[in-house]
């Protein structure tokens, strides 16, 4: 069975050579998402490190299991991964039925919503993605305890705290 360090190595290998939309090594995104859920345990950190491998790499859930990733971690990764034919909003509705998946997706959303990450995008993309992430937060945040959302947002994207405080 892989430990957290082993899962981090697996994620780094899986995303080797990939960059995000602004040219930053992609593994930095999954590490930031994992940092956001660190307070909720090692299993959730593992899932956060792997949350994009099923969508963005050739690895399958079966590959993860064979590599020694715990079953529960793989189940969470599968839950937050896009499925062909499932609309984004419908996927969010499925995610919020699972506490771990919800926390992971809140961390992912918070990191994707960082102004410094969006700044490198064309204005039209920035605006479209900002609205998409705001709409997702309207689904995700009510599905988790406010203290949990605050813990994640404080770590990953403190700029969102004003939005969080405004919804209370």
Describe the 3D structure:
This protein has 168 residues and is mainly α. Helix content is 67%, strand content 0%. The chain is built from 12 helices and no strands. Helix 8 runs antiparallel to helix 10 (123-140). It is globular and about 45 Å long.
Provide the fold topology:
Blueprint (H helix, E strand, L loop, with lengths): L3 H11 L12 H10 L5 H9 L2 H4 L4 H7 L3 H10 L7 H8 L3 H14 L2 H4 L4 H18 L5 H11 L4 H7 L1
Helix pairs in contact: 1-3, 2-3, 2-8, 2-11, 3-6, 3-8, 6-8, 8-10, 8-11
Question: Which labels suit this protein?
Answer:
globular, single chain, 168 residues, 12 helices, mainly alpha
Radius of gyration: 15 Å
N/C terminus separation: 42 Å
Count of discrete alpha- or pi-helical segments spanning 4 or more residues: 12
SS-based class:
mainly alpha
- The SSE string, one letter per element, is HHHHHHHHHHHH
Low-confidence spans: pLDDT under 50, at least 5 residues? none
Number of strands: 0
Q: Helical content, roughly?
A: 55-70%
Largest β sheet strand count, sense and barrel closure: none
Judging from the principal axes of the Cα atoms, what is the shape?
Answer: globular
What percentage of amino acids are in beta strands? under 5%
What is the mean pLDDT? Answer: 95
